[in-house]
């Protein structure tokens, strides 16, 4: 299956009909462009399977079997569900990778761990930069998300132009970088955008997603009244949240420590690329045991109940750097990813059995977590600004995709194309969707 000079195709291999393991292909004139190459954690390999694999990604066989046609790989941002599989799959592709400075730094550290140091051609790009990648012309547009340097892009060909959002939200006070600016997206309305391929994660939620600044304020109010140790579980790649917690520690007279290799690695990457504020110190986790309880603020991994992560070890009281006691507080500052509810509830029950308090979003009126994805009003605004001819919802379960398409229709987007992984969206010369055009699946990755 090879696109001709008249064809413009979109083919999702992962992340459309599910949340996570994003892997998208664009096809034109005998070439393919990959956008994102991510993982999910603790997922079954086949629907209905009871056993899970620790790290899972979309099966790349379709494109790895014609890797000579793969012009390049673009990574939109540094979250695991967009970049996590690339170090382990790159040998199957062996093509250049295009991404921003922060994501490049995170990626290089991952490549060292798999023996690919200095072997992968990584081309760093900046906001508004334009690169010719094979037959595709790609321009990067800055937006806001919960990680440094998140970018949308336009993908231009002689037969049509596509806007690919990546992960985003409209955040005017994002704690990291500049607030969301509509100007670049309003300008796209003049560019005759054929299709907008758009994040659907929060398409079922009305209104706007609260700002990262709101979360900072909520965490500050929560922690300011505490007299004992406070532990916060969050995603290691949520650098905006880590900066917020650094500010909370400073304002409440606590010392901030990170427990978990992925957390320390992410903050190190943020420092190297200028995204970590100089006035926010971090202490070695080994020093936590010497501090009074009221001076401890530890950030840890494992907010989804992952069995080998730090929160589980803290619950079992076998964490080398920190032991918790009755009346200490554990805050879950992360969304409950669908499918992880039971694991999270078991973890909270384990803490409760030791009289350690837990706090989740549903337990408090204060904002202790905000999503990095757009709710319905944000989707409506972006569709109205960009004015694409077609809306293509991605990055969501079927109900999220349908809800995104509904918003697009209400926003006067003429056409909506809802599909699944493996469906071929033929956008030129005519528009149609070939269902199940490519066999897709999942593979387990070893780290």
TrEMBL record:
The UniProt keyword set, sorted, is: Exonuclease, Hydrolase, Metal-binding, Nuclease, RNA-binding, Zinc
Question: What transmembrane ranges does the database entry give?
Answer: none
Q: Which Pfam families match?
A: Lactamase_B, RMMBL, RNase_J_b_CASP
Residues in Metallo-beta-lactamase domain copies: 20-219
Task: Tell me what this protein is called.
Answer: Ribonuclease J
Species whose genome carries this gene: Marinomonas vulgaris
């Amino acid at each position: 299956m090879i696109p001709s000079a008249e064809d413009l195709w979109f083919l999702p291999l992962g992340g459309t009909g599910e949340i996570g393991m994003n892997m998208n292909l664009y096809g034109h004139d005998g070439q393919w462009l990959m956008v994102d190459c991510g993982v999910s954690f603790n997922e079954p390999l086949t629907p209905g399977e009871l056993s899970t694999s620790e790290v899972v990604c979309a099966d790349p066989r379709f494109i790895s079997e014609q890797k000579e046609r793969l012009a390049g790989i673009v990574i939109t941002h540094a979250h695991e569900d967009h970049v996590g599989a690339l170090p382990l799959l790159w040998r199957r592709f062996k093509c250049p990778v295009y991404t921003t400075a922060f994501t490049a730094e995170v990626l290089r550290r991952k490549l060292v761990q798999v023996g690919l140091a200095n072997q992968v051609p990584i081309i760093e790009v900046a906001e508004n930069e334009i690169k010719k990648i094979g037959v595709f012309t790609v321009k990067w547009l800055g937006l806001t998300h919960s990680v440094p340097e998140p970018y949308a892009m336009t993908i231009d060909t002689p037969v049509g132009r596509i806007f690919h959002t990546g992960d985003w939200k409209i955040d005017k006070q994002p704690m990291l970088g500049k607030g969301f600016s509509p100007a670049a997206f309003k300008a796209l309305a003049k560019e005759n955008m054929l299709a907008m391929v758009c994040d659907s994660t929060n398409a079922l939620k009305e209104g706007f997603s609260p700002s990262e600044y709101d979360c900072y304020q909520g965490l500050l109010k929560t922690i300011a009244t505490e007299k004992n140790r406070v532990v916060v579980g969050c995603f290691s790649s949520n650098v905006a949240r880590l900066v917020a917690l650094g500010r909370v520690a400073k304002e409440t007279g606590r010392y901030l420590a990170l427990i978990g290799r992925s957390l320390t690695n992410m903050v190190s990457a943020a420092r190297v690329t200028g995204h970590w504020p100089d006035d926010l110190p971090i202490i070695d986790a080994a020093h936590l045991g010497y501090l009074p309880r009221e001076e401890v603020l530890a950030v840890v991994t494992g907010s989804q109940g992952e069995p080998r992560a730090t929160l589980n070890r803290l619950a079992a009281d076998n964490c080398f750097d920190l032991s918790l006691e009755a009346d200490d507080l554990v805050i879950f500052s992360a969304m409950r990813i669908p499918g992880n509810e039971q694991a999270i509830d078991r973890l909270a029950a384990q803490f409760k059995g030791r009289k350690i308090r837990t706090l989740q979003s549903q337990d408090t009126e204060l904002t202790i977590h905000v999503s990095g994805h757009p709710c319905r009003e944000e989707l409506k605004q972006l569709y109205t600004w960009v004015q694409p001819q077609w809306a293509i919802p991605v990055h969501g379960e079927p109900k999220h995709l349908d809800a995104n398409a509904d918003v697009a229709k209400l926003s006067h987007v003429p056409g909506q194309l809802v599909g699944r992984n493996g469906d071929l969206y033929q956008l030129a010369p005519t528009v149609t969707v070939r269902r199940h055009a490519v066999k897709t699946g999942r593979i387990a990755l070893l780290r």
